[in-house]
Amino acid sequence: MEPLASKANPKIKELMALRERRDRDRTGRFLIEGYRELLRAVEAKTTIDSIFFCPELFLGSNEPALLKASGARLYRCEEGLFRHISYRDRPDGLIGVAPHLQRGFERLHNPTLLLVAEHVEKPGNLGTLLRSADGAGADGVVVCDRCTDLHNPNVVRASVGTLFTVPVVEATGESALQWLRENKIRIVAASDKAQQIYTQVDLTGPVAFIVGTEQLGLTPLWMESADIHVRIPMLGRADSLNVATAASLLLYEAVRQRDLRR
Fold it and tell me: With the CA atoms of 102, 106, 110 and 115 taken in that order, what torsion angle do they form, in degrees rounded to the nearest 10?
């Protein structure tokens, strides 16, 4: 196949446009860059429309097998062009284009451990929340009243592909609260004003941890609706943790308690 070399190629222009949220929303498509990210997308049976690749930038020997398994339309690029279209400082020669993911509550099946993130602002934080949820074996992540785009390239990158391994739901806070109530899942709100430390609460049953912005915390909707309020001790000068760090502590405490019950 003759490699693409021109920035003026219509396919290249379409790909570059997907860096912008308005074009992702308009087309219903987004970018998946990187071997690990694409591998996890393919393993999760995510539809991949096309892959732009550059063998000169491959880091290993497994990339050809991934290209074949993807079922995508393939476009080989010259190295200079690929570096131009890459979102990364050190590209590894693979960029996929895929349809937007489904984001409804039908993705959750009898969950017992959920993470609910309200008003997440930074793509990197959202991606890291997904990575922590994957690591803890959470059944899903519910993104409420989002401030960032789930399909932002930085979300995909920060999640290291776990965007495709953890069911993600987008919803309003009100609809998420109603769904949790209907499914009899206890709501655990993290707040620096809570009396109980998170390790002192029984987390072995179905629970959803609610985390908010570092600056403002949770809105009254969740603070007033929560079944349990917990805090993470802060022993230094700072009065809050990064939201992804706080979520990791809460999720893994639930994992620890459940392991003890086995």
Answer: 50
Q: What pLDDT sits at residue 1?
A: 66
Q: Give the mean pLDDT of 66-71.
A: 97
0.85 surpassed by pTM: yes
Q: How many domains does the chain have?
A: 2
Q: Cβ–Cβ contacts within 10 Å for residue 187, how many? A: 20
In terms of DSSP H, where are the helices of the chain? 10-17, 21-27, 35-43, 63-70, 79-85, 123-135, 153-159, 173-182, 220-225, 243-261
DSSP letters spanning 99-133: EPPP-SGGG--S-SEEEEEES---HHHHHHHHHHH
Contacts of residue 215, Cβ cutoff 8 Å, sequence gap at least 6? 240
Domain that holds residue 73: 10-99
Look over the chain and give the mean of its residue pLDDT values, rounded to a whole number. Answer: 94
Question: Do the Cβ atoms of 20 and 29 come closer than 8 Å?
Answer: no
**CB distance 53 to 76 below 8 Å:** yes
Cα dihedral 145, 115, 27, 54 sign: positive
Query: Which of 69, 99, 129 finishes a domain?
Result: 99
Residue 202 clears pLDDT 90, i.e. is over it: yes
Q: Could you tell me whether strands 207-211 and 228-231 are parallel, antiparallel, or unpaired per DSSP bridges?
A: unpaired
What is the identity of the amino acid at 159? S
Residues 170 and 217 in one domain: yes
